[in-house]
Amino acid sequence: MRIDSAGTIWKMSYFRGVPKGEEFHCNGNRWKKQSTRTARLVSPARLAGPVFYFRATTVCESAYKESNNGL
After folding, report:
1. Residue 65 has pLDDT above 90, yes or no
2. Which of 17, 34, 43, 46 is such that its CA lies 20 to 30 A from the CA of 61?
């Protein structure tokens, strides 16, 4: 995990560990996972739209969402 200058906590994981529908960062771009093997390019806006295949072991970063689980 890392914390950026804005205080956001980022977790590192493999593409296979990113939940479907979640946005993540990879290779300097922002993506939205669509299936177990594909993601749609979200940012930069001028390139947004295309869908690309990812390897299950591609390293990705996503914002850490804390869960209390009722504790």
Report:
1. no
2. 46
Give the tokens for residue 40: 């749609």
List own/partner pairs for 31-40 with CB under 8 A and 24 or more apart.
31/60, 39/15
Residue 50: asked if its preceding bond is cis (omega within 30°), the reply is no
Paired tokens of 50: 């295309």
Backbone angles phi, psi at 16, to 5 degrees: -65, -20
- Please name the residues in contact with 47: beta carbons below 8 A apart, sequence gap of 6 or more: 29, 41
- Which is nearest to 58 in space by CA: 37, 34, 32? 37
- What per-residue confidence (pLDDT) applies to 71? 46
* Annotated domain spans of the chain: 2-63
pTM of the model: 0.79
